[in-house]
Design a protein that fits this description.
GO terms for molecular function: metal ion binding. Keywords: Copper, Disulfide bond, Metal-binding. This is Protein SCO1/2. It comes from Jannaschia seohaensis. This protein has 198 residues and is an alpha+beta fold. The protein has a single domain, classed as Glutaredoxin. The protein is built from 6 helices and 9 strands, in the order ααβββαβαβαββββα. The radius of gyration is 16 Å and the shape is globular.
């Protein structure tokens, strides 16, 4: 597989880019922890943001039950809506109760993705995936603490899109990363990774 294939998901203009540096860094940390027989990799820093219902949310949301954590944006034409659809489909087909596993969509475009906008985007697709947004700097600090790559890319006419890391983090009940589900992972493989933390 060549470097371009590893770096870019070519979806009509390459809207979302897999950041090789961020992805490799996360995988290297996870592999080193596995070698040391540690159960998971702790990423993330304390945060105080807002969910799509307008309620405060902190890192405590990722404690006490396993979670799926995805960083994306609502104006994404393919990767993000596909990922939301996939998460909802996998969990529904596995008959996973919402209280048994958290599912979160953190925007990396908080300037456009307000709580209200996230709610109108997510709820028609899933009632179990909770959107997270907030003040831009606070959101971006939170994403960086998870080693998530994102970058604004200008488009013609003054618009912009966001390049971003496109894997789902699989967290255990302590909020540690125990696996990744890359974009395009086969359903059976994704479900096996989810089942492993339940």
């Amino acid at each position: 597989m060549d470097r371009r294939t590893l770096l870019t998901l070519g979806l009509g203009g390459g809207v979302a880019v897999l950041a090789l540096g961020a992805g490799v860094a996360v995988r290297q940390v996870m592999e080193s922890r596995r070698a040391a027989r540690v159960t998971g990799t702790k990423l993330g820093a304390p945060f105080r943001l807002t969910d799509h219902n307008g309620q405060p949310i902190t890192e405590a949301a990722f404690q006490g039950r396993p979670s799926l954590l995805f960083f994306g944006f609502t104006h994404c034409p393919e990767i993000c809506p596909t990922t939301v659809y996939d998460m909802e489909t996998w969990l529904s087909e596995m008959d996973v109760a919402p209280e048994a596993l958290g599912a979160y969509f953190v925007t990396i475009d908080p300037e456009r993705d307000t709580s209200e906008f996230l709610k109108s985007y997510l709820e028609p697709q899933s009632h179990r995936i909770l959107g997270i947004t907030g003040e831009p700097e606070a959101v971006w600090d939170m994403a960086k603490s998870w080693r998530v790559y994102f970058q604004k890319r200008p488009l013609d006419g003054g618009d912009y899109t966001m390049d971003h890391y496109a894997s789902i983090f699989v967290l255990n009940a302590r909020g540690e990363v125990v696996d990744l589900i890359p974009y395009g992972t086969a359903a059976d493989e994704a479900k096996a990774k989810i089942a492993a933390v339940l």
